[in-house]
Each structure stands twice: as C-alpha cells, then as structure tokens.
Design goal:
alpha+beta; Hypothetical protein af1432; Beta-Lactamase; Heat Shock Protein 90; 3 domains; 29 helices; elongated
Length: 743
C-alpha cells in the first residue's frame, strides 16, 4: 500500500536530498589517477564512466545541466560529445567514494558487477535485435538499478535490515523494501531519474524493468524496457545477481521469444557476458580495494588539478557576477519555478529569490498539507544557509488558524506574524533572529496553499509598499507552482499504485491458474480411474482364472506377470482416486516445531538413516501453533523431505535442513525444507507440481508425490512454493496462518 501524509512526504524527501551517488573505492582511485593528468584521455575516461552506474548518472546530469535536451542524451557518447572535456573533468574531480567497510558489509561490489553485466547484456541484445541503439541499451542497462544504489549508500544500516528481512521472510527484494522502507528501488530510481531530468525513456526503463507485462506496442521506448528486463534476467541467471538467493520468477528464454529472438539466444548472450565481463571490470578497479595511502595520493593529485581549474573558473565567475542585475532574479522567478519538480525545490527557489532580490533577512516559505496534518517548509536564517523541515500538526498547534481561508483584507498583504505563525516560532524561534516578522499568504484561487514568513534586514526600516507588492507577486507565483507540483505528485503516486496493483494481479493470476490446473487434473483423474477400473478387473479376474487352470510352468509365469501388472495399474488408479477426491481435512491446533521434529526423527531413526544424507532441524520453540490436519500436512512434509533426501543421494550435496520460522508481519508460520543437491532446471521446476511428471529416470517414480503434497497444504489453508536452480539446490516453503481468533 502506498504511503500517505507525513510518512509519504518524508520518503519523497529522501529522493529530493540525493544529489550524487558515490562509487566504489577501487573505481574512484582509478578515476582520480586518470584525472590527475592535465591532459587525460577521453577514451580512458569514457570507459570508466560507461562501466559505473554512479558515474554514468552523474555524467548524464551534467549534460542536461549544460542545456542538452533530455531525449538527445541517450548514451555516454552523447555526454562526451555535448560537454566540454574540461567541464567534465572538473565535475568528476569532486566524486565521492564509498566507505570500504560499508561497501564490504553490504557486498556492494556485487551490485556494481550486476549493473555492469546488465549493461553489457543489454548492448549485446540490442545488437541482435537491430531496432534499439546498442549505446542507448548499454546506458539503460547500467542505470537500471540506480534506486538500489541510492538506498544502499544513503541508508546502509536500514538497507542491511532489508536484505536480512528478504532472506528470512522469503520475499523478493522489492517486497522487502516496500515492507521495511515504504518504497522500492524501482520507484525510487524512477523518481531520481525524473528529478535529475532524465528522459522519459530512461525513467521507464529504470522503473518498469521488473514488470513482466510491458506495453505490447513496438515503439523504441517499449522495446528498450524489454531489452533491459531480458538483460537483467540473463545476468542474474548467470550468477551476476546482487543477492545469491534472489528469486527469478520469469524465464529469460520466454522473454527473448517475446522480443522476437530465439529461446537459445538468452543463454548465448549470458555466455558472451561471462566471457567478456572481466575485460571491462578489472581495468577500472571494480573488484579492487586500494590501500589508504593510494587513495590519499590520488586525492592529493586531484585536489591540485581541481585548484587550478577553480582559480581559472573563479575569474570568469567574478566577471559574470558583476554583470548580473538584482532585478533579474525576481523577473526570472516564474521560469525558475517552472523547472522545479518537487515541493522542496519550489520552496527553496522562493526562499532564495526573497533573500537575493527583496532584501529580507530571515525567510521561511511553507506549504500546508491538504488535510492540515503537517506543514512543510524551508527555513533560511539571517546568517545564511537553508534547512528543509516537515512538522506534524495537532489540535491546538495553530492548525485552525493555518487552515482558515484568509480574510479579504489580508489576502496578498503582509501582516505581523508573531501570533498567526506561533507554530513556527515555537520550533525555530531561536534561529529566526530578531524581528519584526511578517507573513504573507500563498493562495491559489480561494484556497490557502501556505505562506511566507520573513523579517527585514537590520537598518532597512519599515516594510515599504514596493516591497509588499513584490512579496505579494512572489507569493502568488509560488502558490501556483506549489499547486502544480502537488497535482504532478498525485498523478505520479496514482501511476505507481496502478503499476503495483498490476504486479499483484499477475501474481494472483499465476496462483489461480496453478490451483485451477490441479483441480482440472483431479476431475480428469476421477473419470479416468472409473473408466479404467472396470476393464482392468475383468483382465485381472480372467488371468487369475486361467492361471489356476494352467499346468504349463512357462504359461503360468506369463499369467502371473499379467496379474502383477494389473495390480500395479490398480495401485495407480487408487492414487488417482485419492488425488481426485482426497479426504476432507480434520483440522486441529498443532505445534509446527513438534511436527517438524517428528518427521525429522522418522528419517533419522528409520532403516534408511545410515545411508541418508545429514538432516538438520531448525525448529523455533516459540513459533505459534497452526490449525491444520496433522496427518495430511505431516505426509506432505515427509514427501518433500523424501524428495530432498533422494536429490542429495543421487547427486552432489549431503545436507537437508527442516526449519520452522515465525513470519510475524504476515501472522503466519513457515515450514522450510532446503537441500544442497543438484537442483532443477527451469523446465523441470515449472512442472514440479504436475501429476505424473517426474524429473528423474522414467519408471522410478509415478510423479504424484509433490502434487498430493501441494493439494494437502492447500486443503489446510496454506500456501506452497518451490525455488530451485540447477547446481544450487532446492527450497520448498509451506506457509500457514497462525492459529488465533482471526484464523
């Protein structure tokens, strides 16, 4: 569910406060070493920038700030063609690098490797398609996870908890981010790209590359989204994922076919990336952590170069500043506000214009929320600087006065602020300096949007009519800009909610189809069992009669074989009947830890215990009880454990773990069976719950174990999921609601 009110605004402020993303220490050292040269090679610089998401984002922003249209900046080639090399060098000299401990704790080198591998794969896919520029695909692939980089580097402790929660709760990373932070990295990345002015094509590739349903129109923008999505799937399947255990719901081969490529091309692209990856990563220091002395040396050379550039630019800046006129600031306010993309940008622009053009000392423009539950503003004290604030409001804190429509005589006219804006002086009075203070309403139509509180500079006397008129004009323009930004934010939130609802509908549809398939197979099995049983009984009976009368040993053996095979068919029919019409569950409150312990002991003490792989039990004694049929669910758990043991016995691996976890956030308990056996390829995994399908040698199993286990878990109100990759083992999760009044 999308955040609202004060919580949502604080999350949006996180986006507004991210300016530049830091890079890895090894990449930063390599880049500073290049920049220390007074005549660095453009090719060497471009290779570093193209391979690093943080540097690519910074370079694209610089091109946009230089006046290049967003839709014209589709690649790093465009950046280097449009920005003078000297300006680019000056900007890159101020890069920030990650703290080595933070980078190691969050394994951020893996995240950087993932973004580079995705960019390389997107470039290869674009070459094969021929409808998307490979350089544009490379940039989109490199930038696709800038939101994840921003979360991990801006909130390292919180993001570490997100990663732990995703692992413990069996959630995908997007769901864990929304649960813990209220926003996921795809939405955050799109907002960053939007605030930085990136093209809509890049914004959508960053935002929608996790969506399996992408608009079918064959536009270049829609195709680029699918190219990035396929690249992301390919490299994660080749081991370039950020989390080793992250879930991959779609098959790369199917996405490739939807793009018009062959199903085998996804594997070919992955192999090509694996072969060429180190040629791109190692030269720029992506996998290297330089010593502190090396960093100091590179930084010293960079500071010297930056000082020389600064002195040259200072002379030009002094000349330009002398030519600027004070009146131009107020005249340009409207155009500056038109470029603002957030509430904080509007408020900061209003405060800056008031300070620069209108001779005010302290100034604090603010916005009142529609519900009157919070106020957001920017405080610029007399000594300079600016501080963004958001305050929740309660009854008795001036909400009534703030929310009231201004009287006709006060609208657009500055009045004394000490009484009307008491909430501001209670919180920031010490920083506002000495008065007198004035306030002017910001109104759009008949509604009050907010206000501007200010004081005049010492020695400037009383507020003049000219100053009052200029401030009234400023407040009127600012109110319109704030209403526009609010409307854009509403549309933005609606589009994000619609995208999330679409993702949830896709997941629900997949689950519905799985249940319907099981039900349909059950009905078919019931009919087939009835039709086969009658002629089978005749065959078996006649064979037994003939065997009783037959005197020739050879013929007796043949008839016995017929009788045995008929009995085998009868057993299969019995399985079909049980699958078609399983007994109704008899639910009772069960301790899941005790049930898991009982199943584990059966395998540990049974006749097969000596030859079985090692079984480990991780059962939390404090896990709440569940209301299930213990016989049916216990049988399902035994079947899953038996499959895990056979997988470990017939392939590599020798460890099976049965774990019981309490999922407090969902009010549920989860039984997890994990093995380190050979795992399943995507084709076998997709049909694991289909009756009569068995991934092992033909004739060894009937393929009814997992389907019946799945059916038993559903009958007790639970859910059952399976995750497996070839060479990485298998994990089966059975989740049940915790027993209680709500069950």
């Amino acid at each position: 569910m999308a955040a609202s009110g004060l919580q949502r605004r604080k999350l949006e402020v996180l986006v507004d406060e991210v300016e530049n993303l830091p890079t890895l220490p090894g990449v930063g050292h390599h880049l500073l070493s290049l920049l220390g040269d007074d005549r660095p090679s453009r090719r060497d610089l471009q290779l570093v920038v193209e391979a690093d998401a943080a540097l690519s984002a910074r370079a694209v922003r610089l091109a946009l700030q230089a006046g290049r249209p967003a839709e014209a900046v589709t690649s790093i080639d465009d950046v280097f063609d449009s920005v003078p090399l000297g300006a680019l060098v000056a900007d890159l000299l101020s890069i920030e690098t990650l703290d080595p401990e933070t980078a190691a704790d969050l394994a951020l080198a893996r995240l950087w490797r993932h973004t580079l591998a995705c960019g390389m794969a997107a470039q290869v896919i674009a070459n094969r398609l021929g409808t998307v520029a490979p350089s544009a695909a490379l940039l989109a692939g490199i930038l696709h996870d800038i939101g994840q980089i921003a979360l991990a580097t801006a909130l390292p402790r919180a993001y570490s908890q997100v990663l732990e929660h995703a692992q413990a709760a069996g959630l995908d990373l997007l769901a864990a981010e929304r649960t813990m932070l209220g926003i996921d990295h795809a939405v955050l990345g799109k907002r960053l790209a939007r605030r930085w002015g990136f093209s809509e094509t890049l914004q959508n590739a960053i935002w929608l590359h996790h969506q399996s349903q992408i608009p079918a129109e064959r536009t270049a923008a829609a195709t680029l989204i699918q190219v990035v999505r396929l690249a992301d799937l390919v490299v994660r399947q080749e081991g370039f994922g950020y989390q080793p255990s992250e879930q991959i719901h779609d098959r790369a081969a199917e996405v490739a076919e939807r793009l018009g490529l062959s199903s085998a091309s996804a594997h070919q692209v992955g192999r090509q990336v694996v072969t060429a990856f180190d040629l791109n990563a190692q030269p720029i220091g992506m996998d290297r952590t330089p010593a502190l002395e090396e960093m100091w040396s590179a930084a010293a050379e960079a500071r010297g170069r930056l000082g020389r550039l600064f002195r040259a630019e200072s002379r030009h800046a002094a000349q330009a500043e002398a030519q600027a006129r004070r009146a131009d600031l107020l005249m340009s306010l409207n155009s500056r506000l038109a470029a603002c993309r957030s509430i904080q940008d509007v408020l900061s622009t209003v405060a800056a214009n008031a300070r620069e053009a209108l001779a005010v000392s302290a100034v604090a423009p603010y916005l009142l929320s529609r519900d009157g539950d919070y106020v957001e503003g920017v405080l610029c004290p007399p000594q300079g600087g600016g501080e963004h604030f958001i305050h929740g409001l309660k009854k008795g804190e001036g909400v009534e006065a703030l929310s009231a429509e201004p009287a006709p005589t006060a609208a657009g006219t500055p009045v004394r602020a000490e009484r009307l804006e008491a909430w501001l002086f209670e919180r920031h009075g010490a920083r506002l300096g000495s008065g007198p203070f004035y306030t002017i309403s910001m109104t759009a139509g008949d509604a009050r949007v907010g206000g501007v509180v200010f004081s005049l500079r010492p020695g400037s006397g009383e507020l003049s009519a000219q100053q009052a008129g200029e401030l009234a004009a400023l407040a009127s323009v600012a109110a319109v800009a704030l209403k526009r930004v609010q409307a854009e934010a509403d549309l933005l939130a609606l589009s994000e909610e619609l995208a999330e609802v679409n993702r949830q509908l896709q997941a629900a549809e997949h689950d519905r189809l799985q249940r319907r398939n099981v039900a349909s197979l059950g009905e078919m099995a019931a009919g087939a069992a009835h039709e086969i049983n009658n002629p089978l009984a005749i065959i078996s009976g006649r064979a037994q009669q003939l065997a009783a009368e037959e005197k020739t040993p050879a013929r007796q053996e043949m008839l016995k074989s017929i009788i045995q095979q008929a009995a085998r068919i009868s057993d299969i029919i019995a399985d079909l009947r049980l699958f078609a019409r399983p007994p109704a569950p008899q639910p009772e409150e069960v301790d899941p830890a005790a049930l898991a312990r009982q199943v584990a002991e059966e395998f540990l003490t049974g006749p097969q215990a000596a030859d079985s792989p090692r079984i480990r039990l991780e059962a939390a004694e404090a896990a709440p009880k569940v209301r299930i049929d213990p016989a049916q669910v216990g049988g399902a758990l035994r079947e899953v454990v038996r499959n895990a043991l056979e997988a470990c016995s017939n392939g590599r691996g020798a460890n099976v773990t049965i774990a019981v976890r309490s999922v407090a956030a969902q009010g549920a308990v989860r039984l997890i069976v994990t093995d380190d056996g050979p795992g399943m390829d995507p084709q076998v995994r997709a049909r694991a719950f289909d009756p009569f399908f068995c991934g092992r040698d033909a004739g060894r199993h009937r393929g009814m174990g997992l389907p019946k286990a799945y059916q038993a878990v559903l009958a007790s109100g639970g859910q059952m999921t399976l995750e497996s990759d070839a060479g990485r083992g298998t994990t089966v999760r059975m989740t049940f609601p915790a027993a209680g009044p709500q069950t």
